[in-house]
Request: fold
Amino acid sequence: MSSAGTPQEHSAAPAAPDPAATVLYVCADRGTLMPGLAAQRAEEEGRAFAREHALAVTEVVTDEFGEPDPARRPGWQRVRELAAAGAVASVLVRWPAAIAPESSSEYRYRESSWLLEHGVRVRYTWAPLVSMGGAAR
Reply:
């Protein structure tokens, strides 16, 4: 109740996610000779990265490679839902092109910024990028 005697509404802020809560996002091209191999490797690499960095993969989200704008992919939309709900603290991605190809890098910057605004960090799992810090720039 307020000092005037009227009921006040209280809205709870979303709880901060467990700092280890992570979504693993896999967006890989389906090769003709070995379909699924790239996605399998990306997932294995992401899980290994998570173990090495004490992160808990709470969900693996996948998309087929092809659509340059991640906001138009069902899997990436799920990543955004998890971020908006405060369910994850980070997103693991093999490399930047999994979010958006180099020819559409503005989408990658848009999505990385949106995630950061929601308290979610993008981390790259490909070894050469890990040695550079493994975080979106």
Notes: The first strand starts at residue 21 and ends at 28.
